[in-house]
Write a structure and sequence with these properties.
single chain, alpha+beta, Glutaredoxin, 2 domains, seven-stranded mixed β-sheet, two-stranded antiparallel sheet, 6 helices, binds nickel (II) ion, Thioredoxin-like_sf, SCO1/SenC, SCO family protein
Amino acid sequence: MRRALPLILFAIGLVALGIAAVVVLVPKANVATASSVGGPFTLTDQDGRRVTEADFAGRTHLVFFGFTHCPDVCPTTLQQIGDVLQALGPKGRDVKALFIAVDPERDTPAALKSYLASFDPRIVGLTGTPEEVAAAVKGYRAYVRKVPTKDGDYTMEHTALVYVMDGQNRFVNALNLARPPEAAAAELAKML
Ligand code: NI
């Protein structure tokens, strides 16, 4: 068992690399494919307003899927997104980041509002009915899976990509946050 672990980790790494390669290559290799990442959605924001993708068109924005009970990846990523937005300075004043809840059962608009109060105010929480969320997940070709935990509770596995979408709601690329926020902001600034 112990010997198998490094192999398993290596295999997971390979799969992750494969996914990263697809994500990086798609926009260059096939514009039609890249532009089909995203797509229409109708969701409810943390203030209870019904919104669609059209409400965020007109300028470059970020999209991230997650859930408020996420122990690690989501809060870290939301903090990093906030750091990048901050590093953009005045140029980033109107840049929005959409946090689309993959756990609509627990993530009501009120739950999102309370959770997001700890993060940059440019991060908008979006949720909806399970069907509405599923449509958004499918549109962005994200991966989401509900996983039962030993204590009878559940957690959500989900894609942790930060999508950069342009003003026409076309997928540009995945924002790499594994670097100082200033570096990610410099790349993002070129797309604003
Ligand atoms: Ni998460």
